[in-house]
Write a structure and sequence with these properties.
With 258 residues, the protein is α/β, with parallel strands linked by helices. It has a single domain (2-256), classed as Metallo-beta-lactamase, Chain A, CATH 3.60.15. It is 34% helix and 25% strand. The strands form three sheets. A six-stranded mixed beta sheet has the order 1-2-3-4-5-6, with helices on one face. It has a six-stranded mixed beta sheet with strand order 7-8-9-10-13-14. It has a two-stranded antiparallel sheet with strand order 11-12.
């Protein structure tokens, strides 16, 4: 069983989810079909499923080209996205199952970036595909939900086993870590991760995946209880409240301008 990252556009990732026994694979978040099809061919695989996390073009722009190239392809799409997933064949919702060969993935509803955003959690792979909800050391912008919606969605992901590898939709890691360090400059795990990620990118390497356990140590949007983070926010706005949603919203507002 394998997960193969396929770079897309300027900083997106698609991922091939591979069942080794059958050589079947599914793709998460395809924006450029040609690159995905080339990777499928290179690895000697058969593409059987498309698993978009949400409807934004940079995550679904390749769907129709994939369907034209691979007859009978199954295209999953969250019902809550209101039919905006191109070439959708199989509507899904929170708690449903997606299949790739003998692999089964659980659909986790994680709205806020979009109303129908989902993650795909594959227990046998110890992996979750989080799209634009959880990034390494970051989270997506809250476009269609509220702050409390995103807090609840991130909490669902954080509840997965700590060893679960996090495969996110974009290569935003270094900038996310730079921002996180403005709020927790004394966080040793955060400083070490920033040093590692900077070297990795300078060498042309990917920074994905991280793990759920690691995100709890470095991701400011999972660290609303951090005393250092809260103190940093209060220096900026002494009137800020202490509830997690308020802390999250203030952190997200700062990141939006970073």
């Amino acid at each position: 069983m394998a997960i193969i990252a396929v770079p897309q556009l300027a900083d997106n990732y698609a991922y091939l989810v591979v069942d080794d026994a059958s050589k079947e694979c599914g793709v998460v978040d395809c924006s450029e079909a040609g690159k995905v099809l080339d990777a499928v061919k290179h690895h000697g695989l058969t593409l059987t499923a498309v698993m978009p996390t949400h409807y934004h073009y940079d995550h679904v722009g390749g769907n129709e080209d994939l369907v034209r190239a691979v007859p009978g392809l199954r295209v999953y799409g969250a019902r809550a996205e209101g039919g905006r997933i191109p070439a959708e064949t199989d509507p899904i919702a929170d708690g449903d199952t997606v299949t790739v060969g003998a692999l089964s993935g659980r659909v986790i509803g994680i709205p806020a970036h979009t109303n129908g955003h989902v993650a795909y959690y594959f227990p046998k792979l110890e992996a979750v595909f989080t799209g634009d909800t959880m990034f390494i050391a970051g989270c997506g912008r809250v476009f269609e939900g509220k702050a409390e919606t995103m807090v609840a969605s991130l909490a669902r992901l954080a509840a997965l086993p700590n060893a679960t590898r996090v495969y996110c939709g974009h290569e935003y890691t270094v900038k996310n870590l730079q921002f996180a360090l403005t709020l927790e400059p004394h966080n040793a795990a955060l400083k070490a991760k920033h040093e590692w990620a900077s070297k990795a990118r300078a060498a042309g390497s990917f920074t994905v995946p991280s793990t759920i356990g690691e995100e709890k140590q470095i991701n400011p949007f999972l660290r609303t209880a951090s005393a250092e983070l809260r103190a940093s926010l209060k220096k900026i706005d002494p009137s800020i409240g202490n509830d997690p949603v308020t802390i999250f919203a203030s952190t997200r507002a700062l990141k939006d301008k970073f």
